[in-house]
Amino acid sequence: MADLDAVVIGSGPNGLSAAIAIAQSGYSVLVLEGYETIGGGTRSAEVTLPGFVHDVCSAVHPMGALSPFFRSLPLEDHGLRWIHPTASVAHPLDDGPAVLLHQSVSDTAKQFGGDADTYRRLIEPLLNSPDTLFADAMAPLGIPQHPLQMLQFGWRGMRSADSLARRFQDTRARALFAGCASHSILPFDCIPSAAIGLMFLVTGHVIDWPVAAGGSQMIANALASVLISLGGRIEAQRTIRSVNDLPPARAWLFDTSPRQLAAIAEPILPANYVRKLQRFRYGPGVFKLDWALDRSIPWRDPNCLTASTVHVGGTYEEIAAAESAVWRGQHAEHPMVLLCQQSEFDHTRAPSGKHTGWAYCHVPSGSILDQTEVIERQIERFAPGFRDCIIARHRTTSLDFERYNPNYIGGAIAGGVADIYQLFTRPVARLNPYTTPNPHVYICSASTPPGGGVHGMCGYHAAQAVIHAIRRQKI
């Protein structure tokens, strides 16, 4: 008889969410973490200087604040506090003020001149019931609970970013959409880059994209606290290298990459399934910089300081060219830089009067090329004098990311390519993507639907598969 009902390998947001859902159903669960600190993509650390708290991976969390599972949990009672800025996104341009993504559709649309009505017609129908839209969008492929709403979203978004961008003539509307579409980590002529960009726009009209007070680590800490309150257990510095390292359990859930699952569980999985796991595509990596700053970033347009996230990339055409170059295995000369300025809203992140900065750009998988110069040059373009603010910096290449977290194959931080061929069949095409041919082995990482982001929904849905199997006495 198994000692435990479930063991979760990995303590990222999905692993912890899977464990919580299992514990909520009254089953015993143990989370194993190889690193000394829990959290996976939600860790924070003083990587530059003492007193400067940097988010090692994820930084701003619209999907976390909107996650149906997170919202069902008493995370605030366990120490998590969201801090919301005035605007979600600022997108500086060379000629004129920055474009701002406000929660108000009207306030956002009025920045777009003749495209204002086009923008409203695109966005407003998706805001009739955003909670149900997010619930269906964050579920595995199947019959949606609200099919008409998903049909509206799919009709608008299930296309390439290039296709959707043709609706706009205004440079500013196109630029704002481009920055959001770049979160897809896809070339803009690829389906469904439009859907991901559109979803990020919608989130900004539902909430202002928040940061976690005290650092992203507080998300993991709150999830862990909920789990422990339910009787679950966590053991750090427990590395699992083979099936022989797994404690006896009815179910093992892997909050890992498909490659890691294949390597660890190969002896107990069919060879054909293992080969499919090994063929999973991860896509480009990232190069990241963290800065300790002696003052706020001196944006040419000070309104940029009102946003938690700044998309530094210029026009739609510039961003599209940069994302396309990365997919050709090239380093963009003028990359799209995703920048976050958490200390503008969370004053615990830096000593009084000082600030932190966080930014990355996409690079070819496994790149070790130092992108410091090109990233800082892009920021200087819209914030003259930025380099003079830097007290210290910390660099992380794509290869560094994989060494730090084996889930980030080649520095890919979003769990794998989310193109039309892998969006719904991640990691392998199965009726239930969280299961494997071995009824005791499951995968619950961002390499399963709905994919990357700090929302816990991959773990939640994987847990439902485990709970169903236990109740049906199939394991």
Could you characterize the architecture of this molecule?
This protein is of the alpha/beta class. The chain folds into two domains: 4-81 and 212-280 and 413-471, FAD/NAD(P)-binding domain (3-Layer(bba) Sandwich), CATH 3.50.50.60; 82-101 and 166-209 and 283-404, no CATH class. It is built from 17 helices and 16 strands. A hairpin with a 7-residue loop joins strand 6 and strand 7 (99-101). Helix 1 (13-24) runs parallel beside helix 11, helix 9 (171-181) packs parallel to helix 14 (316-327) and helix 12 (258-265) runs antiparallel to helix 13.
Number of helices: 17
Structural class: alpha/beta
What is the CATH superfamily classification of the largest domain? Answer: FAD/NAD(P)-binding domain
* Molecular shape: globular
Low-confidence stretches: none
Secondary-structure arrangement, i.e. CATH architecture of the largest domain: 3-Layer(bba) Sandwich
CA-atom Rg in angstroms = 21 Å
